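Hi W.,

Here's what went into the run:
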Amino acid sequence: MPTIRLERLVKRYGAVEVLHGIDLDMAEHEFTVLVGPSGCGKSTTLRMIAGLEDVSDGEVYMDGKPISNLDPKDRDIAMVFQDYALYPHMNVAKNMSFSLRLQKRPQAEINKKVMEVAKMIGLDQFLDRKPGELSGGQRQRVAMGRALCRDASTFLFDEPLSNLDAKLRGQMRAELALMRQNVKKNMIYVTHDQIEAMTLADRIVVMNGGHIQQQGTPAELFKNPVNKFVAGFLGSPPMNFLDAELVDEGGTLMAKGDGFNIALPAELANRAQKLALGTATLGIRPSDLEYSADAPDAASFDLNVVISEYVGAQSVLICSCGDAKITVEIKSETPIALGETLRFAVRPEGLHLFDPKTEMAI
Amino acid sequence: MAQRTSLNRITPYMFVAPAALVMILALFYPISYMIWGSFRDWDPSQSLSETEFVGLANYAKLLVDPAFHASFWVTMIFAFTVVTVEMILGVGLALLLDRNIRGMSVLRTLFILPMMIAPVVVGLVWRYMYHQTYGTFNRFLESIGLEGVNWLGQNPLLSVIMADIWQWTPFIFILSLAALQSLPKSALEAARIDGATGWQQIIYIKLPLMMPVLIVTMLLRLIDAFKVLEVILVLTGGGPGLSTEILALRIARTAREFRELGEAAAMSNYLLMLLMVLTLGMFAFTRWQEARARRLKFAAQEEG
Ligand SMILES: Nc1ncnc2c1ncn2[C@@H]1O[C@H](COP(=O)(O)OP(=O)(O)O)[C@@H](O)[C@H]1O
Ligand SMILES: [Mg+2]
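Here's what came out:
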């Protein structure tokens, strides 16, 4: 299985540059997820790896060999498309075996392979159906199956689950996670859904505006986002951001704002003091805020409940803190009323600071 | 209330009524007149009511008339040859020109020009080009050291077939190009990734997906080719002998030169029946397509 390397990959459409020099290394057997808001250039990157788009500048290497001038068919890749891209006039078996038939493999081998994959993805009952006679979820499976039938070394997925309804998406996500453990291949997966990214990836690459913002394991990115964009993009509900002044009060650096005055842990305070910033953006994930009536002032927020969204065991509360809005989570059985003011303790390790101008993490 | 609903039901028919009236007057009246006339021994100097009823005599006479047979076969050969060649050329050109390179839209526009020229003009232009001494073709042949060909004299059918192909290939080209450009892009990309070469994409993906459009296009063209008149009229006038006398010409001659309106009407009816079969075939095909699409959609919905 090859390693794939993108080197200063640039894509221009006419005069418009949509990818500005992507550098990325993907190790063997790694499940890499490209994630970012729509229009950030994920599909373009993937399609350049596939050979469906020309490379404007830079190079794609597979096992050290430049491949950007090769045809898609010479790159040893399989791809699952967002709209599945099934061949409408062929039945499921023919769809899945198309590539094998082009290679003129023996019929017995083709049949065996198709049956094996069809069983694996639960489509063995539907081999004679045309794509038009299948439901959305089944079509999605056929698209997966078609890719699996190929013995390609690298699998590319372009938002394969985005056309499914929420329930089916969750189910397919779980199946993909399972498949990923059984099929040892390089996989590059594009999605705009951060939950898919977090659950599937060995490594997440967060993109925005044609740049890579940060890459790393899901846990690394979640705990130590390098900038405000990554911090806000990963995690659900998203991180809260508050404008704060940094004030030294008797040797402790405090983040002070409208309705809160929080003591910063020593390490974070040191880093902030080195930059000598007067103000900063304070970032706190909802999961780092905990309902606690008797928390000390310097480690808590007093929040006024504006909206309560019941989502089952947990409720999501949107509260006001001065002029700002803060999202928190709370166990649904906790008796609260709208308009009530509640105290939430913040975990010190859950405090993030961002430079208000560069938006980089401090 | 009941009155209201019945009024509602009538309303659409009332809107259709003027159009239906025009149809009846402009379409059904002449056709009925023709059908009626085909059962009579009818000279152009008589009015239809003065003519003698002869039953199916006109039809029977045609069945054993060698000139009609010749004309029928000329028409068949002409229609099937031009449609076959036009389909191959038109689809081939569309496959060739379906790409986004600079200047392609100009080229496409140029390709459809022949179709926009009035058939009579096409006939005149080709007659000039076929001229034995001044004609473009023979001058070209002579310039490369070959002997000139007596196009319209010795190869009349081939000559009219070539002119028709020149004029009508663009029609198939445009429709094929439209069909090609509405093919699902991602299925073609998937085929590229699955390892299909350009040829394999055409044979396994593009042509099968274009087939419904191609079949309708072919039937339309076939119907039209059976009715061809102007170009042949101008080029050869049906000659030499009966070699290019297609049915439409034969009908005109029977009516005007031989003054056998009844027989001409009967001949028209044979042609009409033939075209009716083709048209119904085309409708049946599109109906079948639609029904199949509906059934597939329904099946997919059932499973959610
Ligand atoms: N064929 C094209 N011509 C011009 N611009 C394009 C084309 N395809 C994509 N783009 C632009 O490139 C950017 C990245 O697109 P894409 O890679 O599809 O984003 P996404 O991250 O949603 O997959 C978008 O701003 C889009 O408008
Ligand atoms: Mg995309």
